[in-house]
Each structure stands twice: as C-alpha cells, then as structure tokens.
Amino acid sequence: MANFNLDDYEPVDQRLKRFLDDHTDASITTNVVSPYESINEWVVFKAVITWDGHTFTGFAHEKHGDGFVNKGSHVENCETSAIGRALANAGYSGDKRPSREEMEKVQRSPAAQNQKKYFEDKEAKARQKAKDMIAENRELIGDDAAFDYETDLEAATDFDAVVAVGKELKAEIQRLTEGPPKTKKQKAEAMVGDTADIY
Fold this sequence. Notes:
Blueprint: H1 12-22, E1 27-32, E2 42-51, E3 54-63, H2 70-89, H3 100-107, H4 110-136, H5 138-141, H6 143-155, H7 159-178, H8 184-198
Antiparallel strand pairs: 1-2, 2-3
C-alpha cells in the first residue's frame, strides 16, 4: 500500500488559518485555467497569494469521478488543492510540503491502488500460511500456545506484523522438532536461551 499516513499531513484548512493569522492583509485569488468546456470532466486551478509585495502561486488538477470526493466535488477539491500548493510555496507547509488533500490524490492513484492490492494479497497469503501452520502443529505446540499465536495473528494489522508472527511460530516449531542440542555450540546456545527465559 502507499507508504504514508494521511494523518501526518496537514489539511489545507489548517495551513490557511495559520497563514491568515500571520497575514491579515493578504489576498488569495483562484482561477480556472483549464478550458471551461472540460470542467465537468477535469479542471485545473491556479491560486495566487499576495501580501506585502510578495506573490506565490499554486496549481492543481483534478478529474471528475477520481475518488470519492471527486464524484461530486472535483472543482471545489481542485481549488482547495491549488490554495494548498500556493501556501506551501509561501512557506506554510508544516512538517511536510504536500497537503493532506494532495496525498489523498496520491493515495487514490492507479499505481497506489495496485500497490495496495499487491500488499493486501501478500498479507492475506502470509496470514493463511500462519493459520495453516498453527492448525498443522497444534498438537506439537499445545493448545495454549496455539491460542496465543492465533490471538497474535488476529491482532496483526499489516503485512510485517503477520510475517513476524509466522516467523516466531516457525522458530518455535523448529525448536520443538529438532530435539535436544547435540553439539557444544547448540548446548551453549540453549543454555543462553534458558537463562534469558528466566528474566
């Protein structure tokens, strides 16, 4: 999936409030710069911010029907994004330059959706593999341990967490099936492991 959290990005509305608190004499204008005959399908906005002799611009492009918001409000959404770009160019970008609205656009792009499906499929396969491993080895690891692994698996919310549960389970199965350590090195490692368990 897209490797970012929308909560890490500041909405344009918050940027705008900060900016207007600092510059009460500023002006913000927006204009549609794409052909008006295309506005029902796609639109490009230009936003211009001016204050104290400074001018900053921002552009945005949105397509009708591209994501939930754009099914009915692609023009309004585009205007907001253009203002966000102009504010970023004016130095009002928070910790990250893109606004939340811009990252929502990235999130709904075909590439992001394909990536999301890819990782969702990988996670589902890893989860099923771990479930099968628990079922096949329940007698070996015991009902209590099996229940714990099932609980951990249910609590795992992403691919990495699911894989971590699977690896832990696999290591436990290997430990139980390999029997007691045979070489001096294996015995030493087992002693270290036993000591660590005490603490």
